[in-house]
Amino acid sequence: MKRDMRMTPEDTRPISRRQALAAAAGVAAMALANRPPFGEGFLSAAPRKRPNIIFILTDDHRYDMLGALGHPFLKTPNMDRLVREGVLFSNAFVTTSLCSPSRASFLTGRYASSHGVINNFTPWSDGNVTFMELLKKAGYDTAFIGKWHMPGGGLPKLRGVDLFVSFTKKDGQGDYYDCPLFVNHQPVPNRKEYITEELTDYALDFIRERRDKPFCLYLSHKAVHHDWKPPRHLKGLYKNAKIDFLAPESDKWNTWSGNNWLEGSMGSMHGIYRRYCECLSSVDEQLGRVLEQLDGMGLLDDTVIVYAGDNGYLWGEHRLYAKHWPYEESMRIPVIVRYPRLIPDPGRKAEQMVLNIDLFPTLLDLAGVRAPGAVDGESMVPLLKNKKAAGRKSFMYELFKDFPFGGRVPPHRAVRTERYKYIEWEACRANELYDLREDPRERANIIGTPRGKDIAPRLKKELNRLRARYAAP
Predict the structure, then answer these.
(1) Position 176 pLDDT exceeds 70
(2) CA nearest neighbour of 413 among 376, 468, 358, 375
(3) Residue 28: which of 185, 213, 217 has the closest Cα?
(4) Would 144 be classed as within a structural domain?
(5) d(C-alpha 339, C-alpha 51), whole Å
(6) Phi, psi values for residue 361, rounded to 5°
(7) What digits encode the pLDDT tens for the residues 199-228?
(8) Residues 431 and 381 occupy one common structural domain
(9) Do 304 and 446 lie in a common domain?
(10) Environment class of 195 (CB within 10 Å of its CB; exposed 0-12, middle 13-18, buried 19+)
(11) Does one domain contain both 20 and 88?
(12) Domain-located, residue 311
């Protein structure tokens, strides 16, 4: 059903000049804050100190690309540190495996069919309420730094965001090298050559500001999206790494063709995969700078750090590349949460299913702020506090037409349970059903088998129930 989440912007008043703007080529802009915090209906009774919040989002980072998960050569020591000192959700998913819809879902806690950003070309609605807006009302300093990538409406004027740093080049994708930025909608030249380092510099400037309030930082990297250009000092880091561990069909496809077309990049899939890993190592380096800064200021243990990817990525599995598809490699993401004040058993790998739409209610819960009643996600706080807490039993996945980039992928919806996945296609492809316990790589479609004919109707019923609850008609 449709939900009206529009909110009338509050009156605003100027506050102090942001240090980050002064550093950005002398550009001066006054940051805006909403009327006095703790407005009625937003803050629940919470005697504890409210934590700082840092959400770090990467692009196309699939769930198993971490050193801590035993990758054969990829080194991610700082991400691995978050895993050791926090909780890694080993069954984390996006509700739409595509950049713009997924990013809007992180911000709003809602399905794409609810917030309206259904592909990479539909504009963001200013009526959408973000967790940053609500945290600002509750007294937080806020910053959005990095990739916006909802190009349909240009850069937004987000309510409740004191500092907004992003880029518009290449329809919001930006460049790995020499990427100009917009700081509170004013164009400024880049200060650093490499974009991952540049965005981290802005983040560190924001963290260093003198303040008597908690802060919420949204740090959104271009990496590891195509065209996979690592920083100069990491180029060739993995050039001799063996790639024989990829899915057999992936390696055969690469050997047979010699080259692959991956989202605007032509070349050896093995070479592209190595560059992807080098870009990811750069993200890990910059994460280390953030952790070091927090530690040096005595803020690390008082800060909730959430790391996630905006969707997964197929490296030849099912003879497919990139995302869009409703298969595990495409829809699963890494989600790591570090907050020692709350987590009693750091280093745990939580098996409960969590979603990108769960970020919104989780961060509000941690800050003691009530989420609006129409949010689709569920707070992960019970799962962080108690390894035996019950998780969701099923969720809906949806993908809409995304021409031309996703033109080869028909629109579809799916339901995933703890054991099964049922996929309904609008056209071109027959429906699919997989037993993920017996067939985790989804290679045996059992929908036409006697067993599948028994299971499919129950899953179809569950998909229809979820669709009626969350999706627009």
Answers:
(1) yes
(2) 468
(3) 185
(4) yes
(5) 9
(6) -65, -25
(7) 999 999 999 999 999 999 999 999 999 899
(8) no
(9) no
(10) buried
(11) yes
(12) yes
What's 458's domain CATH number?
3.30.1120.10
Tell whether pTM > 0.85.
yes
**Are 324 and 443 contained in the same domain?**
no
Whether 276 is covered by a domain: the verdict is yes
Phi, psi of 135 (to 5 degrees): -65, -35
Lowest-pLDDT choice from 7-16, 247-256, 364-373, 447-456: 7-16
Tokens describing residue 114: 């609810």
Q: Are residues 423 and 297 in the same domain?
A: no
Q: Evaluate whether residue 84 is within a structural domain.
A: yes
Identify the CA nearest to 217 among candidates 305, 117, 295, 288.
Answer: 305
Q: Is the pLDDT of residue 21 over 50?
A: no
Question: Is residue 420 pLDDT above 80, yes or no?
Answer: yes
Q: Which residues, listed in sequence order, are joined to residue 196 by a DSSP beta bridge?
A: none
CATH number, residue 300? 3.40.720.10
**pLDDT tens for residues 69-114?**
999 999 999 999 999 999 999 999 999 999 999 999 999 999 999 9
Interatomic CA distance for residues 20 and 286, integer angstroms: 18
Show the domain range for 198.
12-38+50-393
450 shares its domain with 339: no
The pLDDT value given to residue 6: 36
How does DSSP assign 301-318, residue by residue? GGEEEEEEESS--EESGG
Q: Residues of the chain with pLDDT > 70: what percent?
A: 85
- State whether 207 and 331 are in the same domain: yes
Checking phi first, is residue 247 left (phi over 0); if not, alpha (psi -120 to 50) or beta?
beta
* Count of CB atoms situated within 10 Å of the CB of 473: 7
Please enumerate in sequence order all residues whose Cβ is within 8 A of that of 311, keeping only pairs 6 or more positions apart, or say none.
Answer: 60, 94, 96, 97, 98, 99, 102, 323, 330, 331, 333
